[in-house]
Amino acid sequence: MGELVSVIMPVYNGEDFLGAAIDSVLAQTHTDLEVIVIDDGSQDGTVALVEAIEDPRVRCLKQQNQGVAAARNTGIANARGSIIAFLDHDDAWVPDKLELQLEMMRETGAVLVGALMTYLGPRGPMAARAGEIADGQRTKIAEARLMPFPPSSMIVRRDVLEQAGPFDVELNHNTGPIDDLDMVAKIARLGDVVTYPEPLGFYRVHGAANTFAKFFEMQRGTRYLQARFDGELDWDEWKAANPATSGEIRLDKAKFYYRRAGFAYAGGKWVDAAVSGATAFALAPKYVVTRSRRQMS
User: Fold this and answer.
1) Per-residue pLDDT at 224
2) What is the DSSP string of 7-63?
3) How sure is the predictor about 206, in pLDDT bands with cuts at 50, 70 and 90?
């Protein structure tokens, strides 16, 4: 037995993938854990799936639909562990994920440890990886200029997480789901953030992924986060005073088509993948080359 790890799993209509995600947690070599599934007003069989699990380490909390940030806050408020881990309902971990990250946390003194993750498409694992090495990039992370790894890879000391404050619910309502970027930035201002340098999980890409639907709002919101780094900044006032420039729009489009190419490739839609990739390259060749090298390294 070791430190109790509370695994926070927000879910909305996630019955298709939730079972595999929970199974990957219960299969961890670090067994001193609890799984807190926060059902955010699902209308499918999510609750029944969780309540059918007989392992006493699994709990299901139910709330009206409020969004992922509010669901994460609910989970944290009901957690018992000194270490908090996050896992989206459509992702999954390898069996020694927590064990390896806890060891890295002890050895480095980092307050937050993430990991690389392998992209998982409809046809199985892909060659590309999500995430990059955070070590030595604390300033960039603290300024919200880098989200170094997927939220599903993160473990964080609870005392530091509580010091950073709750996930920003209003931010998500205004800009789309970038509460994780905001939280990681706040944590980086309090302590070191590091990445386990090997894939410790699977980051699923599919048409229902929330970040794809909210892509453009997220890009604008990211620039807002960077602008409010030094203090409070009203979203509406900032948005009115900072219309997107032509260069920002061009880069946002390149990012959109690059991401679209990845989704198409994962789904075996080769023509769409090629066209979207070529469009992204035409819009921002430096971004596409840099991003591709990072994901394939």
Assistant:
1) 93
2) EEEEESS-HHHHHHHHHHHHT-S---EEEEEEEES--SSHHHHHHT---TTEEEEEE
3) confident
pLDDT of 210 higher than 60: no
Distance CA 237, CA 270 (A): 43
- Asked whether the predicted pLDDT for residue 218 surpasses 80, the reply is yes
Does the pTM exceed 0.85? Answer: yes
The residue whose two tokens read 């699923």 is 204
Q: At what angle do helices 246-266 and 215-227 cross, to 10 degrees?
A: 130
173-176 CB contacts, 8 Å cutoff, 24+ apart: 173/67, 174/221, 174/235, 175/217, 175/218, 175/220, 175/221, 175/224, 175/235, 176/211, 176/214, 176/215, 176/217, 176/218, 176/221
* pLDDT, tens only, 234-293: 999 999 999 989 999 999 999 989 988 887 887 788 999 999 999 999 999 999 998 888
Say if strands 58-63 and 112-121 run parallel, antiparallel, or are unpaired. Answer: unpaired
**Distance spanning both ends of the chain, measured CA to CA:** 35
Strand-pair partners of 194: 113
